[in-house]
Specification:
Helix content is about 0%, strand content about 50%. It is mainly β.
Length: about 110
């Protein structure tokens, strides 16, 4: 499985960004997809996940009510809509498939 993230950038506090993760590989459709993030000097932390087929979603407390994870099976993409961004959300965001496969990440700056 190969994962490629896009959509990062710089935004002011209160702004929005939409991250996308393009997945390829025959086993992608059977895996739970998710987003993690890592800020400088901090450990990688979970953000959100979505089950196979998109039926179940999970959000870590820090992003509940602000972020939305979604999956487009036709396009083999998983997206993360991030609203009401805060300075604490600044980090490198990584897409993962069952925590076994990882993308290179995309940078989000909030300032």
């Amino acid at each position: 499985v190969q994962l490629v993230e896009s959509g990062g950038g710089s935004v002011q506090p209160g702004g929005s960004l939409r991250l996308s993760c393009a997945a390829s590989g025959s086993s992608y459709a059977t895996l739970c997809m998710g987003w993690f993030r890592q800020a400088p000097g901090k450990e990688r932390e979970g953000v959100a996940s979505i089950s196979t087929g998109g039926g179940l979603t999970y959000y870590f407390d820090s992003v509940k009510g602000r972020f939305t994870i979604s999956q487009d099976d036709a396009k083999n993409t998983v997206s993360l809509q991030m609203n009401s961004l805060e300075s604490e959300d600044a980090a490198r965001y990584f897409c993962t498939a069952s925590s076994d496969y990882w993308g290179q990440g995309t940078q989000v700056t909030v300032s």
